[in-house]
Fold this sequence. Notes:
The protein is mainly α. It is 80% helix and 0% strand.
Amino acid sequence: MVNTTAIAVLLVTFFVMVFLRVPIAYSVALSSVFCLLYQGLPLNTVAQQMVKGISSFSLMAVPFFITMGVFMGTGGISEKLLDLADAVVGWMTGGLAMVNIVASYFFGGISGSAAADTASLGSLEIPMMVSRGYDVDFSTAVTIASSVEGMLVPPSHNMVIYATTAGGISIGSLFLAGYLPGAVLAGSLMVGSYIISKKRHYPKGDPFSFKRLLTSLVTSVWALLSILIVVVGVVAGVFTATESAAIAVIYSILVSIYVYKGVTWKDAWKCLDSCVDTLSIVLILISTSSIFGYCLTRLHVPDLAANLITGVSNNPIIIALLINVILLVLGCIMDMAPIILISTPILLPIVTSIGIDPVQYGIILVLNCGIGLLTPPVGAVLFIGSAIAHRPMEKVVVAMLPFYIMMLIALMLVTFVPNISLCIPKLFGYVQQGTGVLSMIGKL
């Protein structure tokens, strides 16, 4: 009875504060404090768990990845990547929509953030599409939907957070696992965009030119090299994730200032100020979520959740669908980092028991959270896109409906075809072929 009441105190106070729009970090911390007080535990546990939550060498990579993304995002790289994407797919029907999607895939490898993608590329893409005859709500929907690719394509600081929370998972394997799911998501969005563009008679771009493609590739190569520094360095074992991220920051500063000349040394201090703002939010969330996780573990909530979910059905496909539904619902009311930090200790043991590899689950988790960033009432990227386009959120949500469907199709593919996530890590020896029903489906 005591445990049940303590769990109720923890979860009810948390969700009440979330629905009252209390900042998520305070909701997590205060609900944990109430739970500890109810159990008669000393409050110095709060400080101990907060320090423990951020005392991780792997987490040192997070501020570097954030800094790298800010400098690359403000250093003139957006225009270069847009030109490259236009040279690759701009000739298709609905060419600018396709450019938008492909540019997000490229930019995701630079920023690793859906919000940064929308803020940086969206301010260029949405006005450009509208000026070429595209509907403003469609343009906004394409921009925010494609921004989710940035969380799958490495380097992604959310992958680092997941790896740290899950424990024992290689960051390099997660980086490699994100490429194909990001491409699957991009492909599904391109199919949806093509159908809509055909129906609405949106224009094509200029005919394909190999010469222009080569020129754009040469111009963008300095930006794309930053991805190689991080991914190749980690996979080859030359650097740890933290070391490669630090080197990439120095590289991004030099490229932004001396090559693309998008920022000056004076502007660099403003960029660092923005990095500190973002990092403070992330670290506060990580530290307070550590207290929440401690309470969940102490109260055996992961075991109770596992029994509850497996009690619904023994069918691994049903369980996988149920977990996706849970993550999608959480995405509607919570930000990404808290979902990763709070849900991973609860759901990871369940998904591994039905044959889902922890690396694959990391991709499933991040994609679910990415969709959540586009859904009301807490969809941060949805708000950013609406603000940039000066459109009511309700109008953008309506325009997003076809893209929600395409993203859910991509999510189902990533969930039930393990090799989409695991084939590249397997090539480098990071993971072995899993067992269980879902892994058998992946062999079909």
